[in-house]
Each structure stands twice: as structure tokens, then as C-alpha cells.
Amino acid sequence: MARMNYKVDVPSCFVGLILEKCELPYENHGHVVLADPSPILFYRISSTEIRCLVDVPGQKIPSISNGDLSNYLKTVVAPQIPVGMKDAFVATIDKGNIRTMANRSMPAVPHPTPGALLMGDAFNMRHPLTGGGMTVALSDIVVLRNLLMPLHDLHDSYTLCKYLESFYTLRKPVASTINTLAGALYKVFCASGDEARQEMREACFDYLSLGGVFSNGPVSLLSGLNPRPLSLVVHFFAVAIFGVGRLLLPFPSPKRMWIGARLISGASGIIFPIIKAEGVRQMFFPATVAAYYRAPPTQ
């Protein structure tokens, strides 16, 4: 059995509710409400039900048993819910049908083990804000299938383990792009008392609202259709530069220039640690990793 000894980060928790008999502001679309202190998700799961996921920062949430969580949802979260859904949100809380889960993040660190291969959340986790976990898992399955397809004998576990080391490199374009985007977007979308971080949050929303390549590009990255980490970095810093441009136009001031500088610095502080955890070489230069060219074992 392969063991993962690396620390799992828990940036937040989700509080889940099922809202009944209400309508989304835009049907057939998922919704992200940029609330304070962190995002709220809505998406339809049946003709009569909408799933709501309230993100609560930190590793602990208010107690359910003594009513603290219900009070938090009604006093802090409910006022930020879209008007047409607020009554259903409060009614669900009153019914007491509330579920919670910890949101975990864990970089993929290879543990070559003869006879075993970790996949899914046992191997790699990212914040579920973007719903990228299943995309990464299915992409990993395709990579593994392609590696196993030319093989006719799976009994030599040691040789097979050596060959499958290429799996960890070949999966990187899709996995690292989605992982980095999920972590970066969560940090950007969380409310902050820092004026520069708040500007970055608003710039991200307005950037996506421009449509065209400004929305299609990030969505293709998010969905795994564009597995290019460099495109992610370009779009991320395009958002930061867009935010600085909004600050400096039409007339820059020393204060706005200082906020702009902090915005760029803050953006770098968000994305570069995530990229470092994913592996710079594996993300941007996978062809330089020896396992990238590993051929199937001969009979």
C-alpha cells in the first residue's frame, strides 16, 4: 500500500444546503456569489432542487448542535443571497438539513510503489471552488489508459512501476493548470480588508465580464480544454494588469500607484507559491523530465 505523508492544507469548509422551489437568477448556469468573507456557490441538481455551498474560511465552522451555524448563516450569509433565493435559503436552514465538509488541498507528490498507483483525491486535491477534481481524475484515467494500452503483461510490478513514472509527468499539463487555477481563484475571490486584494477581486470579475477571449480563455483552462499552464499565467497577470490600468486611468495618483504596485505584488504572492508546489519544471518544461520519454517495457 502507498502512503502519502505530506501535509494536507485545509483552507476552508463548505456548508451544504439543498434549496427547494426557487429559481436561479440565470437558469442552466452555475453561480458564484462573491460574498464576504468568501464565495457562495449555487447550481441546479434537479428540476426542483438547487445545491448551495457556502464557503467558511478556516478549519473550523460554528457548531451545528448549539445553533451557532444556523445563526451565522442567517445573519452573515443570508443578507448576501440573491433576492429570489433568500426565502428558500432561510427555510432550508430552519429545517436543519445542513451538511458540512472540509475543503482540502494537497499537491501531487509521486510515490512510485510496485503494485500500486494512487489516483483521485488520495493522490492530489485542490480547492473544490471550481469543481475541477473530477476533471483531473478523468484526465488521469485517460493518461493511464494510454500508458497501459500497449502492454500485454502486467505481472512484472517493478518494471511496470518504473515505466509508469512517466504518468506523473504526462498528467501535469491538465492537473497543474486546474490545480493552480482553483487555488488562485479561491484566494482572489475571498473578501479582504486589503484594498489591493479587493481591487484584484473586482478586476477579476470585470475581466471575465468583458467576454470573448477574456472569458473563453479562463473557462477553457478551467474545463481542462486548454491544458497549458503558460496560458493560465498569462491570463492571471492580465487580470492584475487590467486592475492596475483601472486604478491609473484616467489620472494616476501616488496612492493609486501604490495600490497598483501592491496588487501586482499580491498577485505574484498568490500564484507563484502554488506553481512552486506543483513543480515549475513539470508544469512548464515537462519534456526535460527523463520519464517523459519512457518507453513501454519490452517483452
From TrEMBL:
GO terms for molecular function: flavin adenine dinucleotide binding; squalene monooxygenase activity. One of its GO terms (biological process) is sterol biosynthetic process. It catalyses: squalene + reduced [NADPH--hemoprotein reductase] + O2 = (S)-2,3-epoxysqualene + oxidized [NADPH--hemoprotein reductase] + H2O + H(+). It comes from the Eukaryota. Keywords: FAD, Flavoprotein, Membrane, Oxidoreductase, Transmembrane, Transmembrane helix. GO terms for cellular component: endoplasmic reticulum; membrane. Its main location: membrane. It is a multi-pass membrane protein. Its cofactor is FAD. It holds the Pfam family SE. Pathway: Terpene metabolism; lanosterol biosynthesis; lanosterol from farnesyl diphosphate: step 2/3. The keyword Flavoprotein applies. It is found in: Membrane. The chain crosses the membrane at residues 230-251, 257-275. Residues 6-258 form the Squalene epoxidase domain. Its EC number is 1.14.14.17. Catalyzes the stereospecific oxidation of squalene to (S)-2,3-epoxysqualene, and is considered to be a rate-limiting enzyme in steroid biosynthesis. Belongs to the squalene monooxygenase family. This is Squalene monooxygenase.
